[in-house]
Amino acid sequence: MTQESDEVAAAIAGELSLMDPAVRVSRTEAVRLLDPEFTEVGASGRRYTYAETVGELPDHPGSSPTGPRYEPSAIRGVLLAPGLVHLTYTTTFDGHRAHRTSLWRRQTPETGWRMYYHQATPFPRDNP
């Protein structure tokens, strides 16, 4: 593997971890995977800060081990600069589909890869 593919693979692994209900309910894991400067624009259009996300993630959809789960597909990543990866993919969750994009950054080897920004855009209802 090249350095670029290693970095993209690390970002994809982090992204998939954040869809795991066991990770979503763990404040420790959320803090490990989310950058302190993290922001999100959810599929609802709501903007979330780092503090809101860390505090509310256990109660968000997809966090219950017995409930619906995010099903990702067509994940692609590109290294934009050293320590910065852009991911795009689609999710299906409880019958709803969304386009998703994330920026992952690695500031130091100690902090590892963390999600810096995330946005979800729902598919129009008439889009198959």
List the helices and strands and how they pair.
Blueprint: H1 3-17, H2 21-24, H3 27-33, E1 34-41, E2 47-49, H4 50-56, E3 71-81, E4 84-93, E5 96-106, E6 113-122
Parallel strand pairs: 1-6
Antiparallel strand pairs: 1-2, 3-4, 4-5, 5-6
User: Biggest β-sheet, characterized?
Assistant: 6 strands, mixed
Q: What letter string, H or E per element, gives the SSE order? A: HHHEEHEEEE
Strand percentage, roughly?
A: 35-45%
- Low-pLDDT sequence parts: none
Q: Write down the Rg.
A: 14 Å
List keywords for this structure.
six-stranded mixed β-sheet; alpha+beta; 128 residues
Question: What would your notes on this structure say?
Answer:
The protein has 4 helices and 6 strands, in the order αααββαββββ. It has 128 residues and is an alpha+beta fold.
State the gist of this model.
It contains 4 helices and 6 strands, in the order αααββαββββ. It is of the alpha+beta class. A hairpin with a 2-residue loop joins β3 (71-81) and β4.
